[in-house]
Automatic annotation (TrEMBL):
It is a multi-pass membrane protein. The complex comprises the extracytoplasmic solute receptor protein and the two transmembrane proteins. The keyword Phosphoprotein does not apply. This is TRAP transporter small permease protein. Keywords: Cell inner membrane, Cell membrane, Membrane, Transmembrane, Transmembrane helix, Transport. It comes from the Bacteria. It comes from Roseomonas nitratireducens. It is found in: Cell inner membrane.
Amino acid sequence: MSALREALTAISRASALFGGLLLLVAVGVTCASVVGGLLGKPILGDSEVVELCLGVAIALALPWAEMRGGHVIVDVFTARMPARGVAWLDALMRAAVALVATVLAVQIADGAYGQWDRERASMFLELPYWWGYAGAAVGLALWTVTALFVAAERFGEARRAA
């Protein structure tokens, strides 16, 4: 199980780093457009590039957050629960995250196919919309795998705590 965790962590880290690179592209395009605007020559379609990069970057960062336990946890209701109850509740919530990640990945992949099939593209740069959907689908598919793995880990921990 630890070898699988190491592999998923490495893949998730690479995914998040690529997402970070896309964020830098978005920042660069935004800065260039602002400077160009001050000089009377803004970048046409800058928002299209930024939208594409941000959507994919977020999806690519989710697996890393999952593997590191970086999602927000509200423990107001569990602060007084016994450790065994918290372990089982955490395992159930991780399974719920895996289910949500699966639904999102399937829907975004279906959206990518729909955008490709209809040949939809952005207005100014004519960037195919399916690129963004497909990139996000990859990130969400990896999130599904990591969420399933973390849920299985948590169920194992909860069983040992019982």
